Amino acid sequence: MEDFWFTIGYSGSCGEDGFPTPGELIKQTRTKKGLSQEQLALELGCSRTMVARMENENLGLNDITTRRQLSKILGIAPMMLGLISREDLAKVQPTMLYNTTLLRKGLVLHREVYFSGSSIGGLNEVDATVQQVFGISKSLDHKNKEVLEILCHYGQLGIDIGREEQNYKAVERFGNWSSSIARRLNDPTLLSSTLLRYAAAMYEKGDLARARQYADEALSQPHLSPQLYGGVLLEASRIYARNDPKTTMKFLDKATAIARKNSNEADEGFVKLTPGFCYLRSAKAFYEAQEYENALEALDMAEEQTAPTLVRRKCAIQVLQAQVLASQGHYSDATQYASLALTLASAINSAPNLAYITTLYKRLKNSSFGSSKEVNRLGKAITQTIGSRPIVAPH
Questions:
Q1: Which GO MF terms does the UniProt record name (predicted)?
Q2: What is the pLDDT of residue 93?
Q3: Which of 83, 107, 142 is where one domain is finished?
Q4: pTM of the model
């Protein structure tokens, strides 16, 4: 792969994925164009220091919008930055596209960016990408299994982002569409990974009957990889937590055992099953059971064993910590964690977590600590963050 990039003018190193190291590519192209770091910073709307960190440390490059800006400003082929432009898609023959790994690499990149909490352009970006891949599939009479699989995975990404934006119409659209593709392909892995996301969205919407229906169907699929099966167990544990704590703990024990044993297995369903995620779900179950000390212990373990790159999970940990502390009457600590969580939830545009924090603020305001400067400061920060945006408290 490095030889290929060399033939089109790139002389730097490549990462494990075979693509040019972004920082080296940016520096090399900027230098060839005779641009200074200050000039590039001005074009990007950031500081010279930020450009230097992009080039030297590959920092700030998870955001797809930034990569697209760099592609346009420096004239770098989108493919070299792990992207593919709509213009390129229009020019490339479908038979060339589906015989390459380009679409799948793009999918993996979108998924990694999602877990990191960086911007991928929201539902509009997913819709645009889905239309591109759908066009390829259509030109192949919807008979190419690999392209249909990728299309299904992008639909799943649409479910996840729709849930984060609390756009449940989009969730329904992507959920029904992805599950229909999975059923057409008779693929239990695709169906299960679709249904677990659909279940999560219905849980947060408050439709527990459908959440349980989808979780149960996901669990019933045969021949699932341990990673995916463990991920479904974790989602089911959250859904069962209030009404069936015994089954919840059974699911959690199974999922935790799988996570510890199969952490290096291929992640077919993009669930990122880790011990840290298991501790987070365990903490949720303890919280529902009002076992607050156990919940805090589990949250400590979740924090310790969750990678810094999994920003969405870090945010969920902080929100739940604040909720547990408030339930114990530790209002000052709860307010502190809620403030930290608010900053993170705002940065990743997570509407469910913003709603949890808003609901918690109302509890704090009505508590004996409600007139404190800390709570008032939190209230002002929430107002500045949310404004007039409608936020619905999830289940």
A1: DNA binding
A2: 52
A3: 83
A4: 0.75
